[in-house]
């Protein structure tokens, strides 16, 4: 989630490079010895970075919310990335029904594709329009 928080403010400026992690080590994309996941498995942040990379070259889309200090957002290429940066859940009403909503970092964890999405504390989602 924190990586989306770093990327969202720079998107309107046409940011070309943003280094958010290393491949391995304490800031790495891959788990090492003594971590709560198997060695060599991708950490959740790898999935957020993959979604951010997927927006490269896309036209930036302004995403408005009534809670800009609570929900960070990026949009482009028919996709929205949203992150709840609060300790409480956030309910968001979408202007139209999306094709799908997926929790980032929990691959295969789809949420109901409806006009409202509930973001749990520090949750990140990808919405395909």
Quick recap:
The protein is of the alpha+beta class and 129 residues long. 16% of the residues lie in helices and 24% in strands.
How would you characterize this protein structure?
This protein is an alpha+beta fold and 129 residues long. The chain has one domain: Immunoglobulin-like, CATH 2.60.40. The chain contains two helices and seven strands; from the N terminus they run ααβββββββ. The strands form two sheets. The chain has a five-stranded antiparallel β-sheet with strand order 1-2-7-4-5, covered by helices on one side. It has a two-stranded antiparallel ribbon with strand order 3-6. A hairpin with a 2-residue loop joins strand 1 and strand 2.
Characteristics:
129 residues; alpha+beta; Immunoglobulin-like; 5-stranded antiparallel β-sheet; two-stranded antiparallel sheet
């Amino acid at each position: 989630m924190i990586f989306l928080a770093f990327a969202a403010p720079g998107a309107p400026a046409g940011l070309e490079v943003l280094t958010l992690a290393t491949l391995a080590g304490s800031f790495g994309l891959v788990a090492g010895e003594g971590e709560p996941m198997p060695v060599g498995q991708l950490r959740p942040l790898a999935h957020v970075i993959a979604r951010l990379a997927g927006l490269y070259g896309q036209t930036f889309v302004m995403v408005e919310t009534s809670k800009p200090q609570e929900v960070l957002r990026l949009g482009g290429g028919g996709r929205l990335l949203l992150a709840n940066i609060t300790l409480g859940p956030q309910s968001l009403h979408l202007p139209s029904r999306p094709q799908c909503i997926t929790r980032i970092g929990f691959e295969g964890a789809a949420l109901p594709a409806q006009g409202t999405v509930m973001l749990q504390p520090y949750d990140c989602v990808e919405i395909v329009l």
